[in-house]
Write a structure and sequence with these properties.
single chain, 401 residues, alpha+beta, Nucleotidyltransferase, domain 5, 3 domains, six-stranded mixed beta sheet
């Protein structure tokens, strides 16, 4: 029995370490064996075996040698093989659908947007048709589709791919993941739109390098000639991991903290343009609106105590004055602590943020090496060593110098 347990642990560790190498190459870009060993702490012999196996299976490929000023043999660089396949991320917005297509190495190979309705029942078929249309027009095959990520408004059981409740899509317990997976014959992961948008910021945007941050998803809606800023959702990255809550409802703050829409929340298209303009001149009305948003945000910041706040959503708040106003109000409102200062940053992704995050999640979870997929939105940060079955020892990853 001990031999069986030990063998199982060794197999599990081998799978984990192979996946670790793949994810690090995708996260950092091209790396040499020596750099991989430096980051993971794996023995050279172990890493050589892993790399040889990944090369044999065409998961990775060599792309030349690392530049160096030192004398001696140059290190061969490795990268994910982009020809291994492709993924698509889907961002379902209020009146449209955003799609981001990535190759296996994570490079964006296409983006588009199409108008949609608010009926969840129609989305799986519409989405499958659009994916096939893109593949046909870009010399890709559906057989090479590695996975699909879907970012949707509402509360989502991401483990089952079920939309538990979405007011906007008028859906409850809707099996979005299963229906789309059956339509495209590929793995599908589904999550809340703010969660995937925050993942895009963590991997490739304004939150890159942060361990703990809050992503605020600010929403607007046009009613006739009136535009209201009324919704506020949030996503929490805690210690480099996406936190969803016990019932997948973490971050749904507007029902409790955000007041109902009023005349003071109304904005014009011109004002929205000013909020999106880095150097636009902020009016007193916009200062009042952003200050009100910041007061609500401060309540959440007090609970989480993050390093930074990222401003995202379908309202682009990139204006330097507006960002500074929000930052000032938050830090003036939260509980004062020694050396405490919460930075506020504008989102990197003005458009396609939720679909980019969904595509990144699909890339990270896709099963291109044997073993079970990773939890969505979580990259491995340690190399595992086999033990005698009483537990697993871990080595903390050292940052690449």
């Amino acid at each position: 029995m001990k031999d069986i347990i030990q063998k199982a642990n060794q197999t599990s560790s081998a799978v984990h370490n192979r996946r670790l190498a793949v994810q690090l190459l995708r996260h950092h870009g091209a790396l040499s064996r020596q750099q991989l060993a430096q980051i993971t702490g794996l023995r050279s012999s172990t890493l050589t075996y892993i790399v040889r196996e990944l090369l044999d299976n065409q998961v990775v490929r060599t792309i030349g040698k690392r530049k160096s000023n030192t004398v001696g043999k140059k290190q061969v660089l490795l990268e994910i093989n982009p020809d291994l396949g492709w993924v698509v991320g889907v961002g379902i917005d209020r009146d449209s659908m955003s799609l981001s297509f990535l190759d296996a190495a994570g490079k964006v190979v296409g983006q588009e947007r199409l108008v949609t309705g608010h009926n969840a029942d129609e989305l799986p078929g519409l989405l499958a048709d659009q994916i096939r249309k893109w593949a046909d027009g870009n010399d890709e095959t559906m057989q090479n589709l590695l996975g699909v990520g879907i970012a949707t408004p509402g509360v989502v059981d991401y483990k089952q791919g079920t939309l538990l409740k979405s007011t906007w899509l008028n859906a409850e317990n809707f099996p979005m993941g299963r229906l789309v997976s059956e339509a495209v014959n590929a793995p599908v992961m589904v999550d809340n739109d703010a969660n995937f948008a925050a993942l895009a910021e963590a991997r490739r945007g304004s939150a890159r390098g942060l361990g703990t941050f809050i992503y605020f998803f600010v929403s607007s809606q046009q009613r006739g000639e009136v535009i209201q800023i009324y919704g506020l959702g949030s996503t929490y990255f805690l210690d480099h991991k996406l936190y969803r809550g016990t019932h997948f409802g973490a971050g749904e703050v507007d029902a409790l903290l955000e007041p109902s829409p009023s005349d003071s929340d109304n904005v014009t298209l011109e004002q929205l343009a000013v909020l999106a303009d880095l150097d636009g001149q902020i009016t007193p009305e916009l200062t009042e609106i952003t200050s009100d948003l910041a007061t609500t945000m401060a309540s959440v910041v007090n609970l989480i105590d993050p390093e930074a706040v990222i401003l995202g959503g379908n309202v682009s708040i990139a204006n330097k004055q507006a960002v500074k106003t929000i930052e000032s109000v938050i830090n003036r409102t939260i509980v004062p602590l020694p050396n405490r200062f919460v930075e506020v940053r504008a989102s990197t992704f003005v458009d396609h943020g939720n679909s980019m995050g969904a595509a990144i999640a699909a890339i990270e979870a896709v099963q291109i090496v044997e073993g079970e997929p990773l939890p969505v939105g979580q990259i491995p940060t340690t190399a595992e060593k086999p033990t005698n079955g009483n537990g697993r020892s871990r080595q903390v990853v050292r940052e690449l110098q």
